[in-house]
Design brief:
The chain is an alpha/beta fold and about 260 residues long. The chain folds into two domains: about 1-80 and about 165-259, Rossmann fold (3-Layer(aba) Sandwich); about 90-155, no CATH class. About 35% of the residues lie in helices and about 25% in strands. The chain is built from nine helices and ten strands. The chain has helices at about 40-50, 70-75, 95-105, 120-135, 150-160, 180-190, 205-210, 230-235, 235-245, and strands spanning about 5-15, 15-25, 30-35, 55-60, 65, 80-85, 165-170, 195-200, 215-220, 220-225. The strands form two sheets. The chain has a six-stranded mixed sheet, sandwiched between helices. The protein has a four-stranded antiparallel sheet with strand order 2-1-4-5, with helices on one face. A hairpin with a 2-residue loop joins β1 (about 5-15) and β2. α3 packs across α4 (about 120-135) and α3 runs parallel beside α5 (about 150-160). The relative contact order is 0.18.
């Protein structure tokens, strides 16, 4: 059985059918990329999966648990975490405090008014381990808002990892990054596959083809095709969608905004 399944997800906005009975599965240990042109329904689908939108039909199942009726924070407790395109760090707090708050929220560690948060040794250790995991050990005492964009993105990933997710939704993690930061994020995402399954929504097709075990192409709210990089590159309809060609042409690896 797949770790995660979206089954027949439908979302309508008035007369617009944004997702049309979408089926999508993510396997354990898999990096599964979701791509598609602008207006394909990717953002709507991810919002349905994470619980920010309620589906009109269909269901979402993670590790055998039906999450369809649950709020986003309840889905998080069952192992679903999400990183948004825009980072959600506390900009005026240090990296350490950001991580400790995330660990505290997920661990149930006390908020006792007579106990210093930094005195809880296990909390400190977990926060420092997360910083090391994403390469931020040397930046623990810096204010998150002063970090470069790419580093803030890695902090955002660490905040999501605090919940020890079974499935991590990464929404355009390479957005706005230069080549060096993108390479570091690609390496980080690849390393995470041993800890959690990943559903990746990304414009950078170089990163998609490098990272994804499987790629699903969403067009007009439907999954057009799903397969490995070679399958997607050679699919005639994918060629037409992305290149606007009547006769299929090679879908070369390139850095191109395709959402």
């Amino acid at each position: 059985m797949s770790l995660f399944r979206a089954e027949g997800l439908v979302k309508r906005f008035g007369g617009l059918l944004a997702t049309d009975h979408v089926d999508l599965a993510v396997e354990r240990g898999e990096i599964h990329a979701l791509i598609g042109p602008n207006g394909a329904g990717k953002s709507t689908l991810v919002n349905l999966i994470s619980g920010l939108l309620a589906a009109d039909a269909g269901r979402v199942v993670l590790d055998g648990v039906d999450l369809t009726a649950l709020a986003p924070h309840q889905r998080s407790r069952h192992g679903l975490a999400r990183c948004f395109q825009i980072t959600s760090v506390f900009r005026n707090d240090s990296v350490r405090d950001n991580l400790m708050l995330a660990v505290q929220a997920q661990s149930g560690s006390s908020f006792r008014c007579l106990a210093r948060r930094d005195a809880e040794h296990a909390l400190q250790q977990r926060a420092e381990a997360l910083a090391q995991r994403v390469g931020l050990t040397e930046m623990l005492d810096r204010n998150a808002g002063t970090l470069p964009h790419g580093v803030q993105k890695r902090l955002d990933v660490a905040l999501a990892l605090a919940s020890r997710p079974r499935l991590l939704l990464l929404d355009e993690p390479m957005a706005g990054m230069g080549p060096e930061d993108s390479a570091q994020m690609v390496a980080l995402i690849r390393s995470l596959a041993s800890e959690t399954a990943i559903l990746l929504i990304e414009h950078d097709m170089d990163a998609v083809f490098e990272l994804a075990d499987r790629i699903s192409v969403l067009v007009y709210g439907k999954v057009l095709t799903s397969g490995d990089a070679a399958h997607v590159r050679g699919h005639p309809e994918v060629q037409s969608v992305y290149l606007g060609t009547e006769a299929p042409a090679p879908l070369t690896r390139r850095r191109e905004a395709v959402r």
